Amino acid sequence: MRYLFGPVLSRRYGTSLGVDLSLPPKTCTLNCRFCQLGDPPLSRLTVTRTDSPPIADVLDELRCWLPEAPPVDFITASGSGEPTLHARFGDLFRFVRAERGGYKSLLLTNGTLLPLPEVRREAALADVVKISLHAWDQESFERTVRPHPSLRLDAILDGYRAFRNEFAGRLDLEVFIMPGVNDSLEQARRIAALARSFSPDSISLNTAVRPTADPGITACPPGRLADLKEIFEGGGTAVSVSRSQPPPPDNLSPEERAALALRHPTKIG
Fold first, then answer.
1. Cα 132 from chain centre
2. Is 232 helix (H, G, I), strand (E, B) or coil?
3. SS3 assignment for 182-218
4. Could you tell me the pTM of the whole model?
């Protein structure tokens, strides 16, 4: 399989089959300092949406996989880049909805293209969407995720608010905590205030558990994460803290393990 990987075991989402819509790998709108896939060539930092890889080829792989499929909780658009850069990523969710196996769909996105109405419309086809927010203003946005020069945090937040109004499914938020970068109590308060403006159903505070693009990014200590968790709690939003990654399922073939390792490098320690 060229585009499928896993199933991946996640503490939040159970078991999911990953569908990689990025070609070439690490094509993204951001170059996050904490990214587990390292620093991409500058040519792969983009906001231009394309139809590569061919969505028909991706769906053909899914059709081959489904008859022998192990039970999974989600079929997930994720992988080695930003899935909403694919101009037809919504076709994956249409395919999942049409299947008789009762599968649910999940979109893991950095959210940077949600200001575009066409992206919001296609993203709303997923059962669950996870977006991200690690900064509180344009300067911190540029410092934490090193975005494409055209991206503005205010516009992205407006996209989040619009999507929340349009989306009937579950909206989750990831906040990646980096010591010395965005882990002060005041910084957390500012991020939490922005999060409340678009009312995610849940918030997950994550930290480094795998090698990062910037080797200076380290794991946030458990005690500090617990202090920050209190800041994000309230208003009925469920808040969790993730400090480790579960191992891959035991029944993966060598080829499946290789495909998974390509997108989820070995965790630290």
1. 7
2. helix
3. CCCHHHHHHHHHHHHCCCCCEEEEECCCCCCCCCCCC
4. 0.89
